[in-house]
Amino acid sequence: MKRDLTLAATTFALMLACVHALSRVFSTGEWRAPVYVAIALALAIAAIVRALRLHVLLTVVLAGVALVTYVDVMHLPPGGGLIPASEEWRQFTTLLTDGLRQFRDELAPTLPFPGLVLIASLGAYVVTALVHELLVRFRKPGLAILPAAVLWTVPLAVPQPPGRTWPHALPFLAAAGLVLLLESDVDVAGWYRETAVPRLSSAGVLVGIAALGLAAVAPGLLPGYQATAWYEQVSTGGPPGYQPLVDVGDRLKLPAPRAVLEVTAPRPLYLRIAALDTFDGRSWRVGPAGVLSYSPADEDLTRGDRDFPSEVPLGPTQRIAAQVRVLDLRNIYVPVPYQPVRVTGNARDQMVYSAVGGFVATVDLQEAGEVNGRPVAGVVEGLEYGVVADLPVPEPEQVLGASYDPATVTEHLRLPPGFDFLPFRQLAQQAYEVRGAVSPIQKAFALQDHFIGPSSSYRYSTEVDSLLTDQGADRALHRFVFEEQVGYCEYYATAMAVMLRSTGVPARVAVGFLPGEVVGAQTGEDGSVTASIYEVTTDDAHAWVEVLQPGIGWLKFDPTPRSDGATLPPQPTDLDPLQTLAQQSELDPTQQPTPNPADPSNEFDDLPTPANPDGTPDGASGGGGQDRGMPLRLLALALVAGVGGTAVFQWRTRSHHPSLDPAERVLAAQRRVHGAARRYGVARRLSETGSEVARRWGDELRVDRETATRFAHVVEEAAFGGSADPSAGPEAEDLADRLVGSLRRSVPQQDRVLAPVRVPVETVRDRSRELLARVRGS
Question: What is the pTM of this model?
Fold first, then answer.
């Protein structure tokens, strides 16, 4: 048992060192808890299986049940039953799909999105189980390192900004070296002696220390040092390394909001990351349809140290200036208000403006300069920049009677071939008729009101599937609009833009951030407030709709019915409001937002809790809601832990009898002693008996004479007596331990260093001599 516990602890140390490399992938540490729990659970299940000596089929079943329960508890939304059902399976597949997509599209280091953490946890669980079986059950330390090395190398192979990698490599190398340096004792005695504790080879320790020291002080000697990563990420749309619309949904699903930007501006601003013109049936993208990885042409790019051209001719505008400080955001796009005129600050030389998509990004869309003397790729913590922008502020009468030139708007009306847009067109026309909308802008207001108006049945929630899947987004969009009517900003922006395009109104989806919350003010010399300071969090990640009005510009519309009222949707009498819906409702309680008790993101806590028919509050013991699901899942884990604890307790308290015959145990101990003696260069001579070599070792002061004599006597009785006393086996094993230790201490340091390779070297030498002698004799 001591051996198993030691090797299990070694497995745990190896896995912790292995997953430490994930800190290069994630920008914060929220991934650690679920990954560490997965490792601990895998080891606990392996210990239970080892203790109960279960059949391999039952082993797989128990490991699978534990894994399903773990995923249900740690990764899926609360509220399910004791046994995961179809809904939990759907949630799992959606989360896994999101994670695979994020792995493909995100630029590391990235936020610990739930899908990515799920993939990391599953990998840690499976690899831990494999390592434990290979190391503890089969005593194959070399093979045990292989699956751990695979998991370890994945984060190191992903392209990232320049930086030190050796701090992530040394822990794994040290743990792997520890595994390899443990004496395996794979002979018969070592195999069955469950109480034996593996020992470190002194020679191996010296070799390991030398290797780690070399890796730490001379990494440039390693092949491929600072070379291009062998794994190349390929984005499926937009500039490489980042998918704006994907990122919006992922940030909204983070378990806790995180401040990403601090904006100082004279008024609330939507900060746009990119405008997405192309809808391919699954997602909105930058660039033309059918292009997997888009980079703007040189003629569409403007250096950041120059003024930017407008995407389209603008009408009346308001020029504003804002300062942005990045708190916790990593991507290649620079959040700016529409229409950016120029960026200011030291970082402007590392930026570029694209007329296609209207975005500001880092130079070459991949590289950036330095922040605090440190090279960076893209927008990172600590980056500060200013932006000057022209905001379209037309008068209502300027837009209500405007008409379109077909040549100007055709490219903003495209829908993908085969996309069933007829139902969306019919619904849009019904909304127009109800609200008497005739002009393009009136139609945009009609659809915005269709989703967020007082009579709307739509509600906001992030606990839904993402539209950006590979399983037919047109069906997902149809289900959202006509059936479920529950979603978040991606759904609403996509639905409204598709409905507008299907009825001849040029529209697109923009992504970025809402203005955020005012947390301070900037004052002038006279003490007057010159600008407000806004804190923008991950909850403010957003998608909205832009409608093209020739001669005026792209006008913003926001069809998302967020219950926190953080949006600034335009109204027919106010095309550019300065107050959010929440601020408007404070002035006039009859205005939106209207609290929706069914909205899981509802922040109006003063509403009474709906009651169930039996009088209990919704979600209480009679409701089967969130408060009931989590205890049931915890109960499932407790049952598994209880079974495991009982099994381990019974295993430890039962009488343990090795399966070998006492005489066989004695002879196995003898082989172990003579094997160690051969490794240390003091092997038994061909002419010596066991008693004679024991006396010689005693005369040479290598071992205690009485111990060696007693060991020789016990061995002779077992070898020639035909049987042995039951106590002879444990006694021989204890004497062997002392003799091996004494022999190790008696030889010079160089012999200890050569011990691991002495036997194979001598074997090769002797075989070579025999072969040479045969050749000469022939």
Answer: 0.61
